[in-house]
Amino acid sequence: MPKVCAVTGRRTRRLTTSRRRGSAKRKGGVGLKKVGVHTRTQRPNLQKKTLWLGGRAQRVWLSAKALRSLDPTLLAPPLRAERRAGGR
Description:
Residues 1-30 are annotated as: Disordered. By secondary structure, this protein is mostly beta strands. The protein has one domain (13-85). 14% of the residues lie in helices and 40% in strands. A two-stranded antiparallel sheet has the order 1-2. The chain has a two-stranded antiparallel sheet with strand order 3-4. The radius of gyration is 24 Å and the shape is rod-shaped.
């Protein structure tokens, strides 16, 4: 199972950062020269949580943003009386 948020679809992103040398033309220089490009990864704050969907437990990855916006009753286990009434 890939590490992707089940609600928002957030996943690891690949970014580039660049190093520059020189001074800007607006400061009287000859301009900035790009001397190196590096890649880095940006990972979302994913947490493994158990959701109760249709009376069944399902473990999914959730981002912190999705966790804040989620209905709290989906995270809590169902009550025993409800489970007994459902046949379990």
